[in-house]
Amino acid sequence: MTAAQEQQTYDVIVIGAGPTGENLADRAHAGGLSVALVEAELVGGECSYWACMPSKALLRPMAARADAARVPGLEAPALDPAAVLATRDAFTSHWHDDGQVAWAEGAGLSVVRGHARLAGPRRVVVEGPGASLELTARHAVAVCTGTSAVLPDLPGLDAVQPWTSRQATSAKAAPERLAVVGGGVVAVEMAAAWNALGSRVTLLVRGERLLDRMEDFAGGLVAEGLRTAGVDVRFGVSVRGARRNGEVVLDLDDGSELRADEVLFATGRRPATADLGLETVGLEPGGWLPVDDTGLVQGVEGGWLYAAGDVNHRALLTHQGKYQGRVFGAVIADRAAGRELDTVPWGRSVATADVAAVPQVVFTDPEAASVGLTLAQAEGAGRRVRAVDFEIGNVAGASLFAEGYRGRARMVVDLDREVLLGATFVGPGVAELLHSATVAVVGEVPVSRLWHAVPSYPTISEVWLRLLEAYRG
Ligand SMILES: Cc1cc2nc3c(=O)[nH]c(=O)nc-3n(C[C@H](O)[C@H](O)[C@H](O)COP(=O)(O)OP(=O)(O)OC[C@H]3O[C@@H](n4cnc5c(N)ncnc54)[C@H](O)[C@@H]3O)c2cc1C
Ligand SMILES: NC(=O)c1ccc[n+]([C@@H]2O[C@H](COP(=O)([O-])OP(=O)(O)OC[C@H]3O[C@@H](n4cnc5c(N)ncnc54)[C@H](O)[C@@H]3O)[C@@H](O)[C@H]2O)c1
Q1: pTM, whole model, 2 decimals?
Q2: Ligand 1: residues whose CB is within 6 Å?
Q3: What ipTM was assigned to the predicted interfaces of this complex?
Q4: What residues form DSSP beta bridges with 380?
């Protein structure tokens, strides 16, 4: 061992200090274990600096302005792009992680800076600034390394220097013309945000709909909202090649060209496992890390390697990664102490909701919010179901919220058990409605009992009453 290769032993080593790693480390430590939390970039992860927080800071003024514009007697407030970008910068703490490091150290975690690689069972080597450190875990190593953006393999793309979600959430000014490629959440949210900040946005979708993991009507209403706001939304179009000569020129498969100042590729994610030493423990580098419901990575002997958050591919959302972190961190502590686990579905020692009841809000105008199964997913799973729809604008609370409110709700009911399998709300102001549906789905509340959960008048929540009335006939 050289002087630069110090060795340290902890009960648990957590690789990656995003929201998942932070929560897992915290729960394991709360269970009585010593924890090293290793981070290659910024403590807080993608979510804090290049994803959830900056994107929502960019989107909130747009939504507030649109909501105000729909209230008779109010004029839409002017949106000041420089002020919005400054607020975004403040929400990312100007891309400094001192606050999160102080939290982690205050919580009793040992923060280690550097790129971590597995070096065999329970061993991790960290290449830090100027030194390398060899860590050994007495009980567990947890991989919480998240994902990075995937760029398609297109001729000329490298030279174009396209935006990924990183530039789309951290750019210092709105390009005059922005092309966005993709039809998922990043594409629609960033198209909405930069359009509001002053860019002329063209959204290129290779399929025929947006947000294809949600009910059909969600993508339809979001496309309508983007077009109303001025985004040029094009379906059934693919990019064949790209070049930059000052401006970006995209060659489209219909033979036309699209010119822009920047292009964002929002075309999905890949796991951050390519340079993680997975080969030293018998796993293929670069792949997702499938886990059992207690977080143990499949195909690794000895019960010591866990994976949580985006990297295990169960649900690529911050709140689900944090949930897994809480559950798996406690499991690691319980196993270390020899405590009995509770592994029945919804038990203390298993993640269940990240498969059975995943809520998600898309922060466009209108917002799209869903939990659980869509009608097509429920039918595809062989369930006997009935879907009930309601136009949210017909609820008194919605007509007060916005003149000409456009929105729709659907609940999917399991006919055998008469409980909700899923719900979707699309419209202005529905984000905060979603948790009521999450409670109903997770709690498996019978429809007969939901009937007694009386929403306040006149709120948008009365859509629950209308859905239940429509269901009961
Ligand atoms: C533009 C955008 C907006 C989003 N908005 C939302 C939203 O509103 N709500 C929501 O729920 N989700 C949102 N998401 C998804 C969310 O960002 C992820 O689900 C979340 O960040 C996953 O957390 P994680 O801790 O698993 O991984 P990450 O946040 O990616 O953190 C992983 C950490 O591991 C570190 N790391 C990686 N490899 C190593 C290594 N070898 N050694 C040491 N450290 C390493 C990385 O530097 C990083 O800090 C958004 C994503 C994008 C791209
Ligand atoms: N508000 C939120 O909750 C939020 C916001 C942003 C991101 N996220 C999460 O982050 C993850 C990543 O989101 P994303 O939108 O980057 O990925 P995604 O997988 O959700 O969507 C990728 C999109 O790109 C398209 N695509 C893929 N390859 C393409 C190609 N070569 N050419 C054209 N189109 C192509 C796909 O058809 C799809 O529409 C998702 O799991 C999402 O849930 C969540």
Answers
A1: 0.97
A2: 15-21, 38-41, 45-47, 51-52, 55-56, 115-116, 144-147, 165, 169, 186, 272, 276, 309-310, 316-319, 321
A3: 0.98
A4: none
